[in-house]
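Researcher: Next sequence.
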Amino acid sequence: MSASSQATLVAGIAAIPQITPAPEPQRPWVNRLRSRGVLATVGLIAFVAIWKAAQASGLGGDGTVPDPFAIPGALLAEWQAGRLQTAVESSLIHYAWGLALGTLLGCALGAAAALSTLIDQLLSGVVRVLRPIPPLAWVIFAIAWFQISHEGAAFVIGIGVFWVNFYTTHAAVRGVEPRYYELARAFGQSGRLRSLLDVTLPAAAPGILAGVQTGIGAALMALIAAELIGMPGIGQEMNVAAGVGDYATVAAYMLVISAIYAVFDAAFVQLEKRATQWRPS
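Model: Next structure:
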C-alpha cells in the first residue's frame, strides 16, 4: 500500500464518528439506600422482626425468648428501681481496673518478650501452661484470695485482657521491619531506649492498638463471668432476673453491656486517632 493510500485510510478511520456510551441515569435514591446507615437500620429491623417471630412461635419453650418490645419497659423498671444505676456503677469499677491492668501488663510483657530472646525463652513454658486456662477458671482463686470484691473481679477481668494484649503486642513488635532500625542507625539514632521510643513503638503501634481495642470487648466477657459468682454488678442482676424467669430484664442488661462497649470503643477510637496522627489517612 502506498503512502497516499495509507494516509487516506487513516483519515477515513478518523472521520468515523465515535460512539460513546450513554451515561447512567442519576438515581440519588439508590445511593441513599446503599448508604451504610440505611443498610444498618434495615438489618437491625430485620433482626428484631426475626426475634419477634421466634418469640411469637414459642421457640425455646417456657417463654425463654423474651418479647423484644418488652425490653424498653424492663429497662425502665430497672432504672426506676435504682438497680440499673447501681449495677452499672459497680461493674464499671472493676471493669476499668481489670482492663487497665490487663492492658498495661500484657503490652509490657509482650513487648519485653519480643525484644529479648532470653525473656521470650524464659516465658515460653509458662505461657504454654497458663494460656489455655480460661479466665472463668480463675474465679475460684479470686474468691479465695480477694473474697467477693472489686479486686477479685478485676483480677479475673485482667487475666482475660492480659493474653489478648500479650500476643498482639508480641506479634506487632516482632513484625517491625529490620530496615527501620537500619535507617535509624544511619541517621545516628542509636541506643536501646532511643530505638524503642523512636522506632519500635511507632512502627508497632497499629498492631498494639488493635490488641487494646480487642481487649475492650474481652474485658466485658470476663466481667460477666466474674459477676456471676455473686459480685454486685450487671452479671449478678442478670443471674437474679434469670432465676425468676424474667428474661426480658436479662436481655435489657445485655443491651446495657452493648452500650458500655460502644462508649468505650468510641472513646478508644478517638484516642487512637490522636495517638497516631503521624499515620497517613
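Model: The mean pLDDT is 83. The domain at 68-275 is CATH 1.10.3720.10 (MetI-like fold).
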